[in-house]
Amino acid sequence: MSIALIIEQLLNGLQLGVMLFLIAAGLTLIFGVMGLINLAHGSLYMIGAFACAAVAAATGSFWLGLAASLAAAAAAGALMEMAIIRRLYERDHLDQVLATFALILILSEGTRWMFGSFPLYLDIPPLLQGAVPLPGGGQYQLYRLAIIGVGIVVAVGLYLLISRTRLGMRIRAGESDREMIAALGVDIRTLYTVVFALGAALAGLAGALVGALQSVQVGMGEPALILAFVVIVIGGIGSIKGALVGAILVGVVDTMGRFLLPKLLALTMPASQANLVGAALASMLIYILMALILALRPRGLFAGQA
Amino acid sequence: MMALSRGTLVSALLLVLLVAIPVAATMAGEPFYVTLATRIAILALAAVGLNIALGLGGLVSFGHAAFFGLGGYVAGIFATHAFNGEPLPFGLTATTSMPVIWLSAMALCGLVALPIGAISLRTSGVYFIMITLAFAQMIYYFAVSWPSYGGEDGLSIYVRNGFPGLNTAQPLPYFLLCLGVLAAGLVLFQLIKGSRFGTALEASRQNPTRLAAVGIAPFAIRLVAFAVSAMVTGLAGALFADLNRFVSPSMLSWHMSGELIVLIILGGKGRLFGPLAGAMVYVLFEYALGGITERWQFFLGLILLGVVLFARGGLLGLLAGKARHG
């Protein structure tokens, strides 16, 4: 087990964490500002991936596809908010769970209707093909490094947006007292639509970026959604900082668990059995982590006031 | 008031339909409809279980598929071991007798529900929804990655487990058996609802602070309700595995948890017959839409959305008026 291999796995964990952050940031923002639990967030991720794959296939340009994924997911999010989600803010969480569960059924089946059941494939753009050398030997895919870079840029951008701009000020105000900012003359309905579309665009971006690593298919949103929920629950629902920490934690723990657990167990038991137990344990690891954190801190690591 | 209210009438009608259709179908030589009705009865039972936690206690568990699936795996594992003549762990003897399997499934689900509930109930609201989901996912991934019992492919039950004095391989006797268990589940629900415990449970949903002020700890009440709820859902899981003669991780998946919630909301939460009404409508829609178009999930989603947005008391709420409890 060389140093390079460990670095590679750590980077893989970081890359997974960054993807989860892009999805979880929108989810946690939507919960923090509107108090809405949105199961259909994974579908927005899927829409982003499909838009990117379709446009890239038609035009031959990954970058146009990337732009299309942002536009399509934001538009789908805004439409969804105005037509349906808006009616759910005053309802309890149960109604929200159910309505957005129904939206998953509609969006998944609708996508299958449009694109068929076969997965689409998306190529890594020529600019980002290739690998970079790692310290200690070995190489790492440039595209995955680029994803990590995008994640860092988005995290910094979101931080600046929320802490430094007028829109961010309104978002923060909406989080702490929605009646008051409405009374102060802020158009809260538009604000909500904007926040929802922003979260949707981030999810769509994540979908497009992952689309080049995996296949693009219906149902890809659901595992991503559940991981994103784990992330925001660990981080504290409503907290962007919590989403970032939670996402990196989940990404690294999951990846390193799958890599290290079988090897660690092999020290105490036969290799075949260690692989078996290790794989089973590793797939449960982040849920165990989440249960532990919630048992100790029921509102997550960085609990907001939500 | 209770004598002939619309609610009672609608509920009675539901029961008569559920019994009459399979009997008629058997006489007409259409066993498929008997299987459909059995599916309704079992899913209704699973939802009755969840309704104890969700309807009465306001505990929105998004992880009840865990218990449904565990119950199913108990049936599957007993059957496999008995088929191969292998002993079970902990010195248990494998058997194909349903009463033993049911008790084991309920005991296992109760035992698993206690620690899950104890941790989950420290949280509330959306955190409770998410942590129950996480526990269910934990068990789901365990089942997927553990190859001894089929892993992702699931486990087949070659011969349906038996019940003393009944030929369970025939559709109609098995339906009647499931119907009997459903009836017992409904009676249990009504007993709980009418008991001091049930009153305390509903109070813990409406105002936990006040409940604590009169000297009843909401935590203990909720934990017991969660465990009982898990046991009933687990029993339904054992029946479901025997119905399909197959159990797979899909019984543990979060989609299943969502479906169970859907059944309750569709019928009307907290109502005795809500889960049955929900299960009937859901399964019949699935069947009817599935016959018309392979895109049935699309339309099912539209219908669900309509129910959530416009029919807030569920279908029984529409048909029978508003529920009498808060």
Descriptive terms for the model:
heterodimer; A: 306 residues; mainly alpha; ABC transporter involved in vitamin B12 uptake, BtuC; 11 helices; 74% helix; 2% strand; B: 326 residues; two-stranded antiparallel ribbon; globular; Branched-chain amino acid transport system permease protein (chain A)
What does this structure look like?
The complex is a heterodimer of chains A (306) and B (326). The termini of chain A are far apart. The longest helix of chain A has 32 residues, at 3-34. Chain A is an all-alpha fold and 306 residues long. A two-stranded antiparallel ribbon of chain A has the order 1-2. In chain A, β1 and β2 (139-141) form a beta hairpin. Chain A has 11 helices and 2 strands. Chain B has 326 residues and is mainly alpha-helical. Chain B has a domain at 31-253. Chain B has 13 helices and 2 strands. Chain B has a two-stranded antiparallel ribbon. In chain B, α1 (6-27) packs antiparallel against α6 and α2 (31-56) packs parallel to α6 (171-194). Chain B starts with 5 loop residues before the first helix and ends in a 6-residue tail after the last helix. The model of chain B has no long low-confidence stretch (mean pLDDT 87). Chains A and B meet through α4, α9 and α11 of A and α5, α10 and α12 of B.
Question: What is this entry, summarized?
Answer:
Chain A is mainly alpha-helical and 306 residues long. Helix content of chain A is 74%, strand content 2%.
Arithmetic mean pLDDT of chain A: 88
Taking Cα atoms only, what radius of gyration of chain B do you get, to the nearest Å?
Answer: 19 Å
Helix-strand pattern of chain B: HHHHHEHHHHEHHHH
Got a strand count of chain A? 2
End-to-end Cα distance of chain A, whole Å, is 45 Å
Membrane topology (chain A): Multi-pass membrane protein
Keywords (chain A): Amino-acid transport, Cell membrane, Membrane, Transmembrane, Transmembrane helix, Transport
Transmembrane segments (chain A): 16-37, 44-64, 70-89, 101-122, 142-162, 190-213, 225-253, 274-296
Subcellular location (chain A): Cell membrane
